[in-house]
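Summary for the funding panel

The consortium committed to producing paired sequence-structure records for every protein in the target list. Below we show the first two records in order, beginning with the earlier of the two.
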Amino acid sequence: SSGINAEYGSIIDTICVAFFTFDFLIRLVICPNFIQFAKTPLNILDFLAIMPFYLELAVGRLVQGGALTTFKVLRIFRIMRVMKLIRHSKRLILMGRVIKDCLSELTLLLVIWLMGVLTFGTVMYYI
């Protein structure tokens, strides 16, 4: 069952990377000034988001094991790509503002929750 889930995850990952690559290449071809395009932070993030996939394809056949974990860590940049979409949704922007305004209350809630988890986890360990 876990092998099938890993296979589906790999297929979805490949489709997403293909879509992001297509999007990046279209923007690269259409841009009037390549230097200005390459200096934009969001375009750098987009490149860093798709680069690990192709590095794994190229280097993965040559190197096996722990050396590939470095490339897998770079996948975190894909999250930045998705975070870029938040600015287009008014509801998500509003939710971000509410979280920002209530940050102290949320921090207090998290601390109280962690104290409960620590306390009851310790009790369960010794029972």
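The next record, for a separate protein in the list, is shown here:
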Amino acid sequence: MKVWDLRQPKKLVSCLREHTMGVTYIAYLERDQFVSGSYDEQLRIWDQRMFRVLKTVAMGGGVWRIRAHPLQPHVLAAACMQAGCRVIDTASDEPVLVASYPDHTLAYGIDWIQSSHEDYFLASCSFYEKEIHLWSLRAQ
């Protein structure tokens, strides 16, 4: 991944080479952090000020989409292609697998859907089945 200074378009700030395959997703998290996913099956959380990796999580499949929980941004849901969907809690030094949803042949999309004031479920989709699945962490 290359980081550019938008005030000086020709100035390359940093070249981040931690991912070994193509990067498929990048998004701001919170507290000067961003998250990236890649075909190398790794989810990485970065310090955006120093451009260094804070945490790396092996996801078991190419990480196609990542979504932070709306109320708990340290809980991340990821569509991990051939590994299905995974939800991890990154609050501690060692991220914890909270749930997995293997019912997709090739998981490509995921997002949190609010069902009540503080209750959320997940919507995920696949490439081959052409289906959207709705599932809850409570049912895991």
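Regarding this second record: The radius of gyration is 16 Å. Residues 66 and 124 are 11 Å apart (CA to CA).
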